[in-house]
Amino acid sequence: MEHITLLIGIVIVTALVFDFTNGFHDTANAMATTISTGALRPKVAVAMSAVLNLVGAFLSVEVAKTISGGIIDESAGIRPEVIFAGLVGAIVWNLLTWLAGLPSSSSHALFGGLIGATLVSVGTHGVHGEAVVMKVLIPAVAAPVVAGIAATAATRLTYRLARGRDEADTARGYRAGQIASAALVSLAHGTNDAQKTMGVITLALVTGGVVAPHSDPPLWVVVSAGLAIALGTYLGGWRIIQTLGKGLTDIRPAQGFAAQTGAATVILASSHIGFALSTTQVCSGSIMGAGLGRKGGVVRWSTAGRMVVAWCLTLPAAGLVAGGAAFLAEQGDWGVTAVAVLGLAVSGAIWLVSRRKPVVPDDAAPASEPEPAGVVTQALQAVAPPPPAGPSVTAPEPAVAATS
Asked: What transmembrane ranges does the database entry give (predicted)?
């Protein structure tokens, strides 16, 4: 019993580490457009998002129930080491995509890790296939499309309503609206993503006989998961914020407001239903939709393509890593220790590589001049010939030749 208690403690700590990585990995969902348009300074934005993520964690437990008893069969003989292996797979994938600056889905990394570890440990009967399809795969396809269409329509409506008015004047109002909509996205993110960690910890407690099956997460689980994701959010995933705020499309205040409002609506509705969707995919789809909704707006499809590839790889890649970790962890205490050591080594190596080219808050903030003008000016300066050495001396010469 002491061994199980210690192992459950390790699983809980690992789950909170995943929750922490989820926070800084997904900060961009709420704050990338708000930062890129200058509505809020980077540090202020992530601080506000962190507080609202914490508040959102207390609003619902429906998604936590989906994780703890919907996708994985609690009665199939799942042991704490299996959950531990699944979390290690999710953390490794989160850190790899963070290093690449790709807004992949932390949610799908977690699902893939749990499913992969369960398949290796107990087989297919340990996974509720219907729940995976209905509550994970279908929302994964539908949610970004719905959010993108909604953001496109909202962006076009926004510009139509503001037609004939000075864009600089309306931008001030939209920046204020962005702050409100970003707050709503942060709140929605807390209600959806923080609950996933609550569900994993509850599942570990059920497997260890600490709580009864199908129980709601205890209050201390809700508090600890909310604090972990809030802390990760405050640190800010600047690499991914830079990609969503500047690398996917050029966002203006009206577009940012439309994208964030649409994303928040989809996330809150899904949390109420119990769909454990990817907030990353929803927000990315909204940003692309807002880019298409503005006349003359451009979506950088090469960046979007890289994101979609990462989305498609997340479930199987995290599952593959977790499956290997589960096989090793089931060999006994030395196997669990080996998984922990390897996980720490890989995470440390990723962090060291990231220090070679760090991304800081100022990299995500808007430039002092509008970006398009700066790019054009630099391009013209690069190709323009140097000015003549003495224009005041050579200019009269053609006039003299003409009179002679």
From this structure: 6-24, 44-63, 83-102, 133-155, 219-238, 308-328, 334-353
